[in-house]
Design goal:
It is a single chain. The protein is of the alpha/beta class. The chain has 2 domains: 2-169 and 340-358, Rossmann fold; 181-329, Rossmann fold (3-Layer(aba) Sandwich), CATH 3.40.50.2000. 46% of the residues lie in helices and 15% in strands. It is built from 15 helices and 13 strands. The strands form 2 sheets. Strands 3-2-1-4-5-6-7 form a 7-stranded parallel β-sheet, sandwiched between helices. The protein has a 6-stranded parallel β-sheet with strand order 10-9-8-11-12-13, sandwiched between helices. The longest helix is centred in the N-terminal third of the chain and has 19 residues, at 67-85. The N and C termini lie close together (10 Å). The structure holds uridine-diphosphate-N-acetylglucosamine and uridine-5'-diphosphate (UDP). Residues 9-11, 37-40, 43-44, 64, 70, 95-97, 128-129, 202, 237-238, 241 line the site of uridine-diphosphate-N-acetylglucosamine.
């Protein structure tokens, strides 16, 4: 068995890390192919360093571009590498352009595809990620669904039950593996425990629309004015670029910092009073860390977080954002983590080993 682990962005590095550690632990024959979709030190290399991951064997250096540019460059580079390496399976994780390219390149070469975090659906085709997820799931041979609900989504689309395994989400493994290493020094940012809101914001549909982004900034100001707490925002490079283009200044109370490494970010999340986000992984982490979450979107592909009462959808209207924060500010945080028991990576590797070694 030879495994190709294809990744390209911050969340893929974090969520693939438990699988990479498991491959190392078992001395499996595997290699990492990085597309280079994310490349700035603080979006890429910092995670390899802090998570103690081996360097990728290949880095395609595709960089940023339109969806077609990113996907096509990755597709060509991945195909060449797969022809050379001839792996028995390609693993992809999540819903980025890298994931779609990895899945299509492998499927057309008749190399098996394993999709980690399969079956998530926002049912919003305006999100590029939704298109990537659906297409990837439909060319995958092994679908590792994080929850039963994700499995049901796949069954409804006609995907055969025998291809689907519910394993939990590798984000739980990753959190558990790093729990003792979390950097709790929020004082380094001049913050008091539970004395600030933490924000992440980078969805294309939120930040590429100047009016919408302006409205979100207004909402953040209302929230700051109501509670008198700073809103700390390790700003994603996409949003930094857009604020600059649209000539938008940070709203009152918004404290911009550069994106931080994973262990620092987990510290910021754990000590926040409440998290505001449009990120996928951050909705999950807030739920697992038992910090109330307000999602700046009208839908989510992580409805499990809503079901357990850890998260609420606020949309992007300023007053609605404020009212949802008012509601979640006083939430009791006794919910159960719906994303598994932290053994997803072990299960995934074990399933692949059984299937591929016997075939
Ligand atoms: C991508 C994923 C998104 C994921 C996010 C994680 C797609 C369609 N989108 O969005 O699903 O949630 O990554 O963060 O795959 N940039 C840098 N340095 C970098 C990377 C990006 O400066 O290392 C800037 C560039 O200006 C670039 C912009 O960010 O144009 C957007 O990058 P891109 O990878 O296209 O999309 P993300 O918004 O990061
Ligand atoms: N994250 C981080 N540093 C930051 C912001 C986020 O390490 O400054 C981590 C966070 O803990 C989570 C992941 O990045 O695991 C989420 O990535 P992102 O929001 O970029 O993508 P998404 O999950 O929306 O695809």
């Amino acid at each position: 068995m030879k495994i190709a682990i294809v990744l390209g962005t911050r969340p893929e590095i974090i969520k693939m890390s438990p699988i990479i550690h498991e491959c190392e632990r078992l001395s499996l024959n595997y290699f990492i192919l990085h597309t280079g979709q994310h490349y700035s030190y603080y979006m890429d290399k910092v995670f390899f360093d802090r998570l103690q991951l081996p360097d990728p064997k290949y880095n395609l250096g595709i960089g940023s571009g339109t969806h077609a540019e990113e996907t096509s460059k990755a597709l060509v580079g991945i195909e060449k590498t797969l022809l050379k390496e001839k792996p028995s399976v390609v693993l992809v994780e999540g819903d980025t352009n890298t994931v779609l390219a990895g899945a299509i390149a492998a499927a057309k070469l008749d190399v098996r595809v394993g999709h980690v975090e399969a079956g998530l659906r926002s049912y919003d085709r305006k999100m590029p990620e939704e298109i990537n997820r659906v297409l990837t799931d439909h060319v995958s041979d092994y679908l590792f669904a994080p929850t039963k609900r994700a499995k049901e989504n796949l069954l409804r689309e006609g995907i055969e039950a025998k291809k689907i395994q519910v394993t939990g989400n590798t984000i739980v493994d990753s959190l558990a593996q790093n729990a003792s290493l979390i950097d709790n020094n929020t004082n380094a940012f001049g913050l008091e425990d539970k004395g600030y809101f933490l924000l992440t914001l980078h969805r294309q549909e939120n930040v590429d629309d100047g009016k919408k982004l302006e409205g979100i900034l207004k909402g953040l100001q209302l929230i700051h004015e109501k509670f008198g707490l700073p809103v700390v925002y390790p700003i994603h490079p996409r949003t930094a670029k857009r604020m600059n283009e649209f000539n938008l200044a940070p709203s009152k109370g918004l404290r911009l910092v550069d994106p931080v490494d994973y262990l620092t970010f987990l510290g910021l999340e754990s000590k926040a009073k409440l998290i505001l986000t449009d990120s996928g992984g951050v909705q999950e982490e807030a739920c697992i860390l038992k910090v109330p979450c307000v999602t700046i979107r009208n839908n989510t592909e992580r409805p499990e977080t809503l079901d357990v009462g850890a998260n609420i959808l606020a949309g992007t209207e300023p007053k609605e954002m404020l009212s949802k924060v008012e509601y979640m500010f006083f939430a009791t945080t006794k919910w159960k983590n719906p994303f598994g028991d932290g053994t997803a990576a072990k299960q995934i590797i074990s399933i692949l080993s059984k299937n591929l070694i016997s075939s």
